[in-house]
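User: C-alpha coordinates for Secreted protein, please.
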Amino acid sequence: MNNLYRLSLLIGASTLCSVAMAHNPICECEPHGEEEILCVGGFSDGSGAPGVTLDVIGYDEEILVAGKLDGDSRLSFKRPDGEFYVLFDAGPGHVVEIDHADIEAP
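Assistant: Done. Predicted C-alpha coordinates:
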Protein backbone atom coordinates (compact mmCIF):
# COMPACT_ATOMS: atom_id res chain seq x y z
CA MET A 1 0.00 0.00 0.00
CA ASN A 2 1.40 3.39 -0.87
CA ASN A 3 1.65 6.19 1.67
CA LEU A 4 -0.98 8.37 0.00
CA TYR A 5 -3.53 5.54 0.16
CA ARG A 6 -2.70 4.92 3.84
CA LEU A 7 -3.05 8.62 4.59
CA SER A 8 -6.43 8.72 2.84
CA LEU A 9 -7.64 5.75 4.89
CA LEU A 10 -6.41 7.36 8.09
CA ILE A 11 -8.13 10.67 7.35
CA GLY A 12 -11.34 8.88 6.39
CA ALA A 13 -11.31 6.80 9.58
CA SER A 14 -10.62 9.80 11.80
CA THR A 15 -13.45 11.72 10.13
CA LEU A 16 -15.86 8.88 10.82
CA CYS A 17 -14.71 8.69 14.44
CA SER A 18 -15.24 12.40 14.99
CA VAL A 19 -18.71 12.22 13.43
CA ALA A 20 -19.64 9.26 15.62
CA MET A 21 -18.43 11.06 18.74
CA ALA A 22 -19.92 14.44 17.89
CA HIS A 23 -23.27 13.86 19.53
CA ASN A 24 -22.56 12.64 23.05
CA PRO A 25 -25.31 13.78 25.42
CA ILE A 26 -24.49 16.29 28.13
CA CYS A 27 -26.71 17.28 31.04
CA GLU A 28 -25.90 19.33 34.11
CA CYS A 29 -28.15 20.06 37.07
CA GLU A 30 -27.52 22.52 39.88
CA PRO A 31 -29.44 24.25 42.66
CA HIS A 32 -31.31 27.33 41.52
CA GLY A 33 -32.48 29.18 44.59
CA GLU A 34 -33.36 27.36 47.79
CA GLU A 35 -35.91 24.84 46.53
CA GLU A 36 -35.40 24.69 42.76
CA ILE A 37 -33.07 22.69 40.56
CA LEU A 38 -32.12 23.86 37.07
CA CYS A 39 -31.00 21.33 34.47
CA VAL A 40 -29.46 22.20 31.12
CA GLY A 41 -28.99 19.58 28.39
CA GLY A 42 -27.32 19.41 25.04
CA PHE A 43 -24.74 17.55 23.02
CA SER A 44 -20.96 17.54 22.88
CA ASP A 45 -20.97 19.19 19.45
CA GLY A 46 -22.46 22.30 21.07
CA SER A 47 -26.02 21.78 19.87
CA GLY A 48 -28.93 22.22 22.24
CA ALA A 49 -31.60 19.70 23.11
CA PRO A 50 -34.97 21.48 23.09
CA GLY A 51 -37.84 19.04 23.47
CA VAL A 52 -35.68 16.22 24.84
CA THR A 53 -37.24 14.26 27.71
CA LEU A 54 -35.92 15.03 31.17
CA ASP A 55 -37.64 13.13 33.96
CA VAL A 56 -37.06 13.19 37.70
CA ILE A 57 -37.45 9.67 39.06
CA GLY A 58 -37.57 8.36 42.63
CA TYR A 59 -35.51 5.37 43.68
CA ASP A 60 -38.77 3.37 43.62
CA GLU A 61 -38.91 4.15 39.84
CA GLU A 62 -41.91 6.49 40.27
CA ILE A 63 -41.74 9.48 37.94
CA LEU A 64 -41.81 12.52 40.21
CA VAL A 65 -41.53 15.14 37.46
CA ALA A 66 -42.15 14.34 33.80
CA GLY A 67 -40.67 17.05 31.64
CA LYS A 68 -39.12 18.16 28.40
CA LEU A 69 -36.38 20.72 27.92
CA ASP A 70 -37.62 24.12 26.78
CA GLY A 71 -36.44 26.10 23.76
CA ASP A 72 -33.25 27.03 25.63
CA SER A 73 -32.61 23.35 26.53
CA ARG A 74 -33.46 24.02 30.19
CA LEU A 75 -35.89 22.67 32.76
CA SER A 76 -36.32 23.77 36.35
CA PHE A 77 -38.30 21.93 39.00
CA LYS A 78 -38.87 21.88 42.75
CA ARG A 79 -36.36 19.66 44.54
CA PRO A 80 -38.23 16.50 45.53
CA ASP A 81 -38.05 15.14 49.05
CA GLY A 82 -36.03 11.97 49.39
CA GLU A 83 -33.75 10.22 46.95
CA PHE A 84 -34.12 10.69 43.20
CA TYR A 85 -32.23 10.88 39.96
CA VAL A 86 -32.61 12.95 36.80
CA LEU A 87 -32.87 11.08 33.49
CA PHE A 88 -31.96 12.98 30.31
CA ASP A 89 -33.18 10.70 27.49
CA ALA A 90 -32.45 11.74 23.90
CA GLY A 91 -32.92 8.19 22.58
CA PRO A 92 -30.92 4.97 22.47
CA GLY A 93 -27.28 5.57 23.36
CA HIS A 94 -28.01 9.18 24.32
CA VAL A 95 -28.96 8.89 27.99
CA VAL A 96 -27.52 10.67 31.03
CA GLU A 97 -28.45 9.93 34.65
CA ILE A 98 -27.66 12.37 37.44
CA ASP A 99 -28.09 11.20 41.03
CA HIS A 100 -29.53 13.61 43.59
CA ALA A 101 -26.30 13.30 45.62
CA ASP A 102 -24.44 14.89 42.68
CA ILE A 103 -26.69 17.96 42.76
CA GLU A 104 -25.31 19.99 45.63
CA ALA A 105 -27.80 21.44 48.07
CA PRO A 106 -27.74 25.23 48.38
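User: Anything notable?

Assistant: The chain has one domain: 23-102.
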